[in-house]
Amino acid sequence: QLRLVESGGGSVQPGGSLQLSCSVDELTLKHYAIGWFRQAPGKEREAVSCVSTSRTISVYADSVKGRFTISAGNAENTVYLQMNNLKPEDSGIYYCAADFVGRCEDWERSDPFDYWGRGTQVTVSS
Fold first, then answer.
1. Which of 50, 55, 63, 68 has the fewest CB atoms within 10 Å, counting from its CB?
2. Which of 19, 29, 2 is nearest to 115 (CA)?
3. Which one, of 78, 54, 50, 44, lies nearest residue 64 by Cα?
4. How many C-beta atoms lie closer than 10 Å to residue 50's C-beta?
5. How many Cβ atoms are within 10 Å of 101's Cβ, its own excluded?
6. Are the C-beta atoms of residues 53 and 32 closer than 8 Å to each other?
7. CA 81 – CA 31 distance, rounded (Å)
8. Are 51 and 58 in contact (CB under 8 A)?
9. What is the pLDDT along the chain (126 residues), one digit of tens a residue?
């Protein structure tokens, strides 16, 4: 059983930055594609980014391209989402999810992902 834990959320002003982490304590993430999703109040969950198991494929929602970067840590138990130039519409709860040996082929859908974290809150407001 893979237990994912998100961290790094918080409150920032527009234009600010945050780095989210998706971590596991005892296992490794190297056999999993990792996706980041977010959900704002009253809205459906939205796919934000995905990195493939091989770490050679990374994809982004159009709304975050050029501002967000997904990457894997050297220890292979953490995947990061660097978020720059944040906008109020980026606010929401951010979740990471893991897809065993995934390639981010259906990354914008939730069902390929087998494991989910509990989320971390991001608030962008002046």
1. 63
2. 2
3. 50
4. 28
5. 10
6. yes
7. 18
8. yes
9. 899 999 999 999 999 999 999 998 878 899 999 999 999 999 999 999 999 999 999 999 999 999 999 999 888 899 999 999 999 999 999 999 999 999 999 899 988 999 999 999 999 999
Token readout for 104 is: 């981010």
CA distances (Å), 82 to each of 21, 71, 103, in order?
A: 9, 8, 21
| Tokens 């780095």, located at residue | 19
**AA letter at 97:** A
Q: How far apart are CA 121 and CA 126, in angstroms?
A: 16
Residues 6+ apart with CB under 8 A from 57: 50, 51, 103, 104
Q: Which residue, among 26, 9, 6, has the nearest Cα to 18 in the 3D structure?
A: 9
| Residue 80 to residue 11: CA distance in whole angstroms | 18
Phi, psi values for residue 90, rounded to 5°: -85, -5
Q: What token pair was written down for 90?
A: 């980026």
